[in-house]
């Protein structure tokens, strides 16, 4: 329970502005680490994309651009709702914050569902790297390079999906917490929490915005 | 006895293991990394024992591989990287900037739990058989051929990486937002500058290691991955990603040492530090340059000649800020009133050993010379001069320097000086012969060697024995002084800095009133003038 309705500063701080700035700074630093985490993958992908250009284009052809595009639309819309949630939290409106967070979570779950359908399609088309990997073609090195593409595809979208699941979990927790807390306006702690969730979610969104052209749109000229 | 952070919230299990007090968390780290240090040290001892004779008679080559992997992994990730930042940094950062705690106290505690979880997974992988890849996990050996618990150990290291990220993030936010009124960036103690530079590397480099380990683990698990040459993957890419983290990590393991030495030297020379801004910016520029030199680990790994030339040149550049620091410390000593107390012996030892380690680094950065000494004992000696001669010396110097503040007790000075000297002698005897061995062509990571190398190897093993004895001394007298040592005054060294203006040991909330800073950090002239005027008034 909050000790104080208006100010809920931790003991070691004396200034609520300082605290808000600190929390935002901390979140940005965390996102910087995330950029480096994905950055290594993007770098590795770029190297091979350059090296095996034609094979990567051929591999990209196997992906379902329409489902990828639909998911992009869904994820961008979810980002819109999380922005509304942050705005509502700033206004201190707990109820409105919660509605927007709920919309975000629902869209995230739809995204993950579509992703699962895609993975299932990939599985039936034998696109999972490993012993059962099988794409048509006669050139064995081209087939090998396509397998490399699918390694990247599954690792990158998989790690992205993992980030989405984590974010969805945190949002669900925040929603439950908001439901249990009756008081309005929101405490500073909760406002900072929602703001951090918002920053994180936009980051997850941006990663996808890069993944879509790199993975799906590479083979688009053949459509 | 006055109430302090050690007693105030009780001594119960919860009061320590659920504490958010940065000082108590520092103690948790101190105890845990000491245990890791002992484990890594035992592995080193076994390796040196094996190398006392040319034949591989004590352990098999396979066991030997597992020993040096254990030694490397434990010492790098579970001792050196957390050593100064998580023990001394955790304890001192808030005290030095006049804050009550770090920016995110709960995250700080979480970092310790994450660290321990990663550490225990790593130890577990050792107990059930170990890993034989070396601490570098090079592919395709680690991903395809190694017959050991690579995934488990990589997971342990991956998890402990989050602890590094949490700490770095916490320090950066703290230094930016929690400085006392009046404490501008150029009034910060240099230790804080070095922690800041270290934190930048921690948050920027660690994620790259994390994703690299994930890629190795997935490749090992699935039998196919992006480093796999069978599908057009490039194992060298692993080395690029690994060293993009691990070379900056070398600076994680030395920058905090620079910070400690920059505190000790002015205090025991009774002088303002020479070239404050140069030392501060040298830390930052080492942090930046450190990200641009990773390719010097791959001079002979089929990297292009042009890349080699660029990386060689950039590696030489690191010598500039490093030399700036050494020259500034030396100039600080010049005409100072030098006291050779224990921390000072460690600090002086640091300067000498770091200089040797740094200069031999230039040999290795030279393309043609590196072809000759690559993967020999020359490299082993070089980085141990930096890591052990540099960082461990600085760590022990710092532990002694701030021991009165941390525990409220004085350690036995004579014993401290003696053990510092033993460590210095033992260290040089262990590692100097290895420069010669490497130059003569003895490769690293072999458990047997031709007979003509035995004399130098025996010297090295003898040195390791002396070094081990030197380390056992503080392990005995420091804990003993915690219980039996004489009570420490607030400021036993008459040092400047906010941490010395409060009680030893500090209270839970550090400062009764928020301090204001209105002076430069190392004003020893003023400090001594005030002290001498006080003695005149009250004879």
UniProtKB/TrEMBL annotation, chain A:
The answer to whether keyword Transmembrane helix applies is yes
Domain of life the protein comes from: Bacteria
- Return the Pfam families for the record: COX3 (PF00510)
Give UniProt keywords alphabetically: Membrane, Transmembrane, Transmembrane helix
Instruction: Look up keyword Membrane and say if it applies.
Output: yes
| One MF annotation (Gene Ontology) recorded for this entry | cytochrome-c oxidase activity
Heme-copper oxidase subunit III family profile domain mapped to chain residues? 1-220
Q: What family is reported?
A: Belongs to the cytochrome c oxidase subunit 3 family.
Q: What is this protein called?
A: Cytochrome c oxidase subunit 3
Tell me the organism.
Luteolibacter pohnpeiensis
TrEMBL record, chain B:
Domain of life, source organism? Bacteria
> Which topology term describes how it sits in the membrane?
Multi-pass membrane protein
List the protein's name: Cytochrome c oxidase subunit 1
The record's InterPro entries line, in alphabetical order, gives: Cyt_c_oxase-like_su1_dom, Cyt_c_oxase-like_su1_sf, Cyt_C_Oxase_1, Cyt_c_Oxase_su1_BS, Cyt_c_oxidase_su1_bac
Q: Name one GO biological process term.
A: aerobic respiration
Catalytic activity reads:
4 Fe(II)-[cytochrome c] + O2 + 8 H(+)(in) = 4 Fe(III)-[cytochrome c] + 2 H2O + 4 H(+)(out)
Write out the pathway annotation from the protein's UniProt entry: Energy metabolism; oxidative phosphorylation
Instruction: Specify whether Transcription is a keyword of the entry.
Output: no
Cite the GO molecular-function annotations of the record: cytochrome-c oxidase activity; heme binding; metal ion binding
Q: Which family does it belong to?
A: Belongs to the heme-copper respiratory oxidase family.
The alphabetized UniProt keywords are: Cell membrane, Copper, Electron transport, Heme, Iron, Membrane, Metal-binding, Respiratory chain, Translocase, Transmembrane, Transmembrane helix, Transport
Q: What is its EC number?
A: 7.1.1.9
Any single GO CC term annotated in Swiss-Prot or TrEMBL for this entry: plasma membrane
Major place of residence: membrane
The compartments listed are: Cell membrane; Membrane
Role of this protein: Cytochrome c oxidase is the component of the respiratory chain that catalyzes the reduction of oxygen to water. Subunits 1-3 form the functional core of the enzyme complex. CO I is the catalytic subunit of the enzyme. Electrons originating in cytochrome c are transferred via the copper A center of subunit 2 and heme A of subunit 1 to the bimetallic center formed by heme A3 and copper B.
The keyword Transport appears for this protein: yes
Q: Which SUPFAM superfamilies match?
A: Cytochrome c oxidase subunit I-like
Can you tell me where the transmembrane regions are?
26-47, 67-88, 109-131, 151-172, 193-218, 242-262, 274-294, 306-324, 345-369, 381-403, 415-436, 456-478
- Domain named Cytochrome oxidase subunit I profile is located at 16-518
Question: How far does the signal peptide extend, from start to end residue?
Answer: none
Q: What class of enzyme is it?
A: translocase
């Amino acid at each position: 329970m909050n000790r104080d309705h208006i100010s809920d500063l931790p003991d070691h701080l004396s200034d609520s502005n300082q605290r808000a700035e600190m929390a935002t700074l901390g979140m940005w630093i965390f996102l910087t680490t995330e950029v480096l985490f994905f950055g290594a993958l993007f770098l590795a992908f770029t190297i091979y994309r350059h090296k095996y250009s034609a094979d990567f284009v051929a591999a990209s052809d196997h992906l379902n651009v329409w489902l990828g595009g639909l998911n992009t639309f869904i994820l961008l819309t979810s980002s819109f709702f999380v922005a509304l949630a942050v705005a509502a939290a700033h206004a201190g409106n707990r109820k409105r914050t919660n509605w927007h967070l709920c919309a975000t979570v629902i869209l995230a779950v739809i995204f993950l569902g579509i992703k699962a359908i895609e993975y299932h399609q990939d599985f039936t088309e034998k696109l999972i790297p490993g012993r059962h990997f099988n794409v048509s073609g006669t050139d064995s090195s081209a087939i090998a390079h396509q397998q490399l593409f699918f390694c990247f595809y599954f690792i990158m979208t998989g790690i992205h999906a993992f980030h989405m699941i984590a974010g969805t979990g945190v949002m669900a927790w925040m929603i439950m917490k908001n439901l249990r807390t009756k008081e309005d306006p929101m405490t500073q702690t909760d406002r900072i929490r929602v703001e951090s969730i918002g920053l994180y979610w936009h980051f997850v969104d941006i990663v996808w915005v890069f993944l879509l052209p790199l993975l799906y749109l590479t083979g688009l000229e053949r459509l | 006895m006055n109430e302090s952070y050690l007693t105030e919230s009780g001594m119960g299990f919860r009061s320590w293991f659920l504490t958010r007090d940065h000082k108590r968390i520092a103690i948790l780290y101190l105890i845990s990394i000491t245990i890791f240090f002992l484990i890594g040290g035992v592995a080193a001892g076994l390796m040196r024992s094996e190398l006392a004779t040319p034949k591989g008679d004590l352990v098999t080559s396979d066991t030997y591989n597992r020993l040096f992997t254990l030694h490397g992994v434990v010492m790098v990730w579970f001792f050196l990287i957390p050593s100064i930042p998580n023990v001394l940094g955790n304890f001192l950062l808030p005290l030095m900037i006049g804050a009550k705690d770090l920016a995110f106290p709960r995250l700080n505690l979480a970092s310790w739990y994450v660290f321990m979880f990663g550490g225990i997974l790593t130890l577990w992988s050792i107990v059930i058989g170990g890993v034989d890849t070396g601490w570098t996990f090079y592919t395709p050996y680690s991903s395809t051929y190694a017959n050991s618990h690579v995934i488990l150990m990589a997971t342990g290291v991956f998890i402990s990486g989050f602890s590094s990220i949490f700490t770095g993030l916490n320090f950066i936010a703290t230094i930016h937002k929690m400085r006392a009124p009046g404490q501008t960036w150029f009034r910060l103690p240099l230790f804080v500058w070095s922690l800041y530079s270290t934190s930048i590397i921690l948050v920027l480099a660690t994620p790259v290691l994390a994703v690299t380990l994930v890629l190795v683990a997935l490749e090992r698990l699935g039998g196919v991955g992006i480093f796999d040459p069978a599908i057009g993957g490039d194992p060298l890419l692993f080395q690029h990603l690994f060293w993009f983290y691990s070379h900056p990590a070398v600076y994680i393991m030395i920058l905090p040492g620079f910070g400690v030495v920059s505190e000790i030297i002015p205090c025991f020379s009774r002088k303002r530090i020479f070239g404050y801004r140069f030392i501060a910016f040298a830390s930052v520029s080492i942090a930046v340059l450190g990200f641009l030199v990773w390719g010097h680990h791959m001079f002979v790994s089929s990297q292009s000649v042009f890349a080699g030339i660029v990386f060689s040149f950039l590696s030489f550049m690191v010598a500039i800020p490093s030399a700036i620091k050494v020259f500034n410390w030396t100039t600080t000593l010049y005409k100072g009133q030098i006291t050779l107390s224990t921390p000072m012996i460690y600090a002086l030892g640091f300067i000498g050993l770091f200089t040797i380690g740094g200069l031999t680094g230039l040999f290795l950065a030279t393309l043609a010379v590196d072809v000759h000494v690559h993967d020999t004992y020359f490299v082993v000696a070089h980085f141990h001069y930096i890591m052990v001669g540099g960082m461990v010396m600085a760590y022990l110097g710092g532990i002694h320097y701030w021991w009165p503040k941390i525990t409220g007790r004085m350690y036995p000075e004579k014993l401290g000086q003696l053990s510092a000297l033993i460590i210095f002698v033992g260290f040089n005897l262990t590692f100097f012969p290895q420069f010669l061995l490497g130059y003569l062509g003895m490769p690293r990571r072999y458990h047997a060697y031709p007979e003509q190398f035995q004399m130098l190897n025996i010297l090295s093993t003898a040195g390791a024995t002396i070094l081990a004895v030197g380390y056992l001394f503080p392990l005995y007298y420091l804990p003993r002084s915690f219980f039996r040592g004489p009570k420490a005054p607030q400021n036993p060294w008459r040092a400047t800095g906010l941490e010395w203006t409060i009680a030893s040991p500090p209270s839970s909330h550090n400062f009764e009133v928020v301090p204001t800073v209105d002076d430069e950090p190392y004003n020893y002239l003023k400090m001594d003038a005030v002290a001498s005027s006080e003695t005149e008034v009250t004879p």
